Amino acid sequence: MTIPLVESALPLPLWRRGKVREVYEVENDRLLIIASDRVSAFDVVMAEAVPDKGRVLTQLSAHWFRLLESVTPSHFITADTAEILDTLPSLADHGKQIGGRAMLVERTRPVAFECVVRGYLAGSAWREYQERGTLAGELLPHGLRESDPFTPPVFSPATKAESGHDENVPYARMQDELGDSLTAQLRDASIALYTAGRDIAAQRGILIADTKFEFGLDDDDRPVLIDELLTPDSSRFWPADGYAPGRTQPSFDKQPLRDWLGRERNAGRWNGEAPPPALPAAVVAATSARYREAYRRLVGRELGEEP
Question: Other CB atoms closer than 10 Å to residue 95's CB: what's the count?
Fold first, then answer.
């Protein structure tokens, strides 16, 4: 376990700071993305960081970008620290900050929708279905249970949110804003990526319940896969050997953190708003272990081990 990184500070122009990542501008129309160990739950960023979380997000994304490069083009160049330092010698004294958590990518123009693919009825989709029998306002079959599979998988776009929850929206809204052709390209690429990733993960004993993809447009207005790919932050991973529809499934993400915060709310010790309560060391350690376990299962080796 490494010393957690709450926020990077590099001698490069900062383009944007997100919930988890800092993105820096690099010459030749490239970007350097640094995944910190910041963690949020219930839309509140915790004061404590989760060791190794950023390294898992970066290295697992890099793993998938390489595996799925034949499915659709991506912005990925490298997540190898030595290669990045060779390319950007000004970062020679910042190896500890970027080690294992930096990704060099091509710059694109981001598309303002999350491309969500759902293989199972869970999360916000389940909550909406319980209330109205719909997903993003569109009717689903009657009588579905929590965690039931969707056959075939469902493409369910969402609007991006800098803070708070993303909002599920109808396919027609995406068409209205992006046009029929681009929307269809993004839908088809998203379903192809999900299907390929789902089949690989199944061989590792993991079900990908749902995931979100982000795309940008290159200089020729062609869609390019960007951001992270099939990580515990962008996806819902379930252990296949314990799967049973009709209930919530255990997942390889920040579930230990959410469970503890939920108990604090139920006990009246936290009102659900910032500032959050201080996290016990055991909760931080359990959350870190859950991220590393997702990496180990999907990649087949421990985080930091050479292939």
Answer: 13
Residue 107 has phi, psi (to 5 degrees) of -80, 140
Structure token digits, residue 244: 């049973």
Q: Among 51-60, 164-173, 212-221, which stretch is predicted with the lowest mean pLDDT?
A: 164-173
Task: Give the chain's domains with CATH numbers.
Answer: 10-107 (3.30.200.20), 110-242 (3.30.470.20)
Q: Are 129 and 144 in contact (CB under 8 A)?
A: yes
Mean pLDDT, to the nearest integer, of 248-271?
93
Kindly list the distances between the CA atom of residue 20 and the CA atoms of 5, 104, 119, 205, 265, in Å, as whole numbers in the listed order: 10, 16, 26, 28, 24
Q: What global pTM score does this model have? A: 0.94
Distance CA 245, CA 242 (A): 10
Long-range contacts of 161-166 (CB under 8 A, 24+ apart): 162/18, 162/19, 163/19, 163/43, 164/43, 165/43, 165/124, 166/114, 166/212
At residue 292, the pLDDT reads 96
CA distance 117 to 204: 20
